[in-house]
Amino acid sequence: MILRLLPFLLVLLAALAMWHFSSRNLLRQLSARSAPLTDPGLAPVLARLRAALGVPSLPVFVYAEPTVNGLAAPDGRVFLTEGFMALYRSGQVTAEEIASVIAHELGHVASGHAKRRMIDFTGQNVLQMVLVGVLGRIIPVAGVWLANLIIAAIAAQLSQRDEYEADAFATALLIKAGIGAEPQLSLFARLDSLAGGRGAAPAWLSSHPETERRIAAIRANVLRWTAA
């Protein structure tokens, strides 16, 4: 019995090791190329977020990367790229819209998505091993491709779930902070063009939900919460 389970245990341990080293490398890279966010124009909205959360400070940093993005690190820090800050400094993005990005990334932290993705990643590796073995026998050559496609679709759906949860957290936090959901909605309405457009992957293989669906979910949450 143990011998039968050994390949799966080895895959599980290898996946955990890969995640651990990947996370450590990411944290080193972020620390080396980032600095705390200290922009005076953002101080009022950050103060509102802090007050709504009841915390003395927010771990928000600016990452020296030209692309337009935000991310939550496994250690709980939140990062905005220099590309996002450039849009803010040029007046293309407002302070309240920047606050909505920070609120979204804080949602990832509060929901424990980094730990969840580690669990998802290890499970997907084991499932991939099983599918490759089964489908590879049933459909030679194409079976491996199909197994990888299934795993990619599962990973995309799990990632999209996390994005919806982070969006909902951000909406609730922005409402509580007195900022409201409109900056979040207005940024999403322009985000694809600001970020250079969506990738070529179909929606069911994308790590993020379609923008229209995210906007609809946010509006539905606002209606439900304000009507309660």
Major sheet summary line: 4 strands, mixed
What spatial form do the alpha-carbon principal axes imply? Answer: globular
How many independent structural domains? 1
Order of helices and strands, N to C? HEHEEEHHHHHH
Strand content: 5-15%
Kindly name the structural category.
alpha+beta
Distance between the termini: 54 Å
User: Which percent bin holds the helix content?
Assistant: 55-70%
Radius of gyration: 20 Å
Contiguous uncertain segments of 5+ residues = none
How many runs of DSSP E, i.e. beta strands?
4
In which order are the strands of the major sheet placed? 1-2-4-3
> What is the tally of helical segments?
8
The averaged pLDDT comes out at: 83
Pfam families: Peptidase_M48
Organism: Rhodobacter viridis
GO molecular function: metal ion binding; metalloendopeptidase activity
Keywords: Hydrolase, Membrane, Metal-binding, Metalloprotease, Protease, Transmembrane, Transmembrane helix, Zinc
How does this model look, in words?
Belongs to the peptidase M48 family. Its cofactor is Zn(2+). InterPro entries: Mito/Outer_Membr_Metalloprot (IPR051156), Peptidase_M48 (IPR001915). Keywords: Hydrolase, Membrane, Metal-binding, Metalloprotease, Protease, Transmembrane, Transmembrane helix, Zinc. The structure is a single chain. 69% of the residues lie in helices and 6% in strands. The protein is of the alpha+beta class and 228 residues long. The chain has one domain. A four-stranded mixed sheet has the order 1-2-4-3. Helix 1 (2-32) crosses helix 5, helix 5 (113-138) packs antiparallel against helix 6 (142-176) and helix 7 (182-194) packs antiparallel against helix 8. The termini are far apart.
